[in-house]
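pls design
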């Protein structure tokens, strides 16, 4: 079978990680099918049964991507004589007559917790994605033969917003590494807090700023470590920049995870913190409840009410909230990309 993987948009961050992870899985585990990866630059290399087609011009602007998706892409697909298409960039290629499976891992258009404004400079880019590009993602959800999502909340949201049958959407959780070996024997500290994150607005670092301001007058000794290079100069906050994975786990073993992000598809730090046995202060959002489940060291707060976070932080610092000696164990670890490949192939058969 000849399968086209469309991920021209990937260039950095989590989306590029998804592309590379899927490519590595195919390279190591699928020798039967012929794969054509459409990408924007030198992110992956050809192998025995993998062809890499670089289309850097298309990646330069969203207008060029739209032209490819709606007009010129179908010509390339026809030329490749493909049997099916797997999109890792949330959208379909229009005008083709072969099955298309979309890996839908962009939550922004499907969430209702935040409505971004075109009139606010720091929100404008996200508003475009939520309200304009979101419409194209909705159309793609309707056009796709099959959708793959990581969580049940995304499945429900797509059904509601796109009027798509639930049977058309397959939930396959992302690969979750068994991190037991990363657990280190350190003394847990009730005055150390940690947030591994980026500077995207929906990560909601401002909630931590406001919570810390509320705690300043109480003369409490505590530190919040945030993995961005800089931010508001503020007492009790330490900007440590991006750190190696082993240091992330070390911080989770030592302190408390704060996770105020209100838009996530999955939220990996939650499950990682639970595997380390850390106390977790999580935004009271559907993704968090689904990912972390009944883990006993979890406490939720409204991500738009920093006073709730401040109360929880104070209770941890003063000992009113005690750490429970429990861990979320990953009994079996499987590479879920195998399930994804099976679903992509089965779309052709259906």
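designed seq:
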């Amino acid at each position: 079978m000849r399968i086209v993987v469309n991920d021209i948009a990937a260039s950095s961050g989590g989306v590029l990680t998804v592309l590379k992870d899927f490519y590595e899985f195919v390279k190591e585990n699928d020798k039967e099918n012929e794969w054509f990866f459409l990408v924007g630059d030198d992110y992956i290399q050809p192998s025995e049964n993998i062809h890499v087609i670089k289309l850097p011009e298309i990646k330069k602007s969203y207008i060029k991507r739209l032209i490819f998706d709606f007009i010129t892409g179908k010509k390339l697909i026809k030329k490749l004589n493909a049997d099916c298409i797997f999109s890792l960039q949330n959208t379909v290629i229009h005008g083709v007559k072969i099955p298309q499976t979309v890996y839908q891992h962009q939550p922004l258009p499907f969430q209702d917790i935040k409505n971004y404004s075109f009139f606010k400079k720091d929100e404008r880019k996200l508003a475009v994605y939520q309200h304009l590009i979101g419409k194209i993602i909705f159309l793609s959800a309707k056009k796709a033969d099959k959708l793959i999502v990581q969580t049940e909340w995304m499945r429900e949201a797509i059904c509601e917003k796109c009027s798509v049958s639930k049977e058309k959407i397959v939930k396959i959780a992302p690969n979750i590494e068994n991190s037991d070996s990363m657990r280190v024997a350190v003394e847990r500290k009730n005055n150390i807090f940690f947030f591994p994150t980026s500077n995207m607005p929906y990560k909601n670092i401002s909630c931590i700023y406001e919570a810390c301001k509320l705690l300043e007058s109480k003369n409490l000794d505590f530190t919040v470590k945030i993995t961005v290079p800089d931010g508001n100069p503020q007492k009790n906050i330490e900007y440590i920049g991006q750190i190696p994975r082993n240091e992330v786990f070390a911080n989770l073993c030592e302190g408390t995870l704060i996770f105020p992000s209100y838009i996530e598809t999955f939220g990996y730090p939650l499950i990682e913190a639970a595997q380390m046995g850390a106390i977790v202060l999580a935004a009271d959002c559907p993704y968090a409840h689904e990912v972390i489940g009944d883990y006993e060291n979890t406490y939720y707060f409204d991500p738009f009410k920093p006073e709730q976070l401040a109360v929880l932080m104070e209770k941890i610092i003063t000992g009113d909230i005690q750490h429970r000696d429990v861990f979320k164990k990953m009994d079996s670890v499987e590479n879920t990309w195998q399930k994804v490949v099976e679903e992509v192939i089965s779309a052709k058969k259906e």
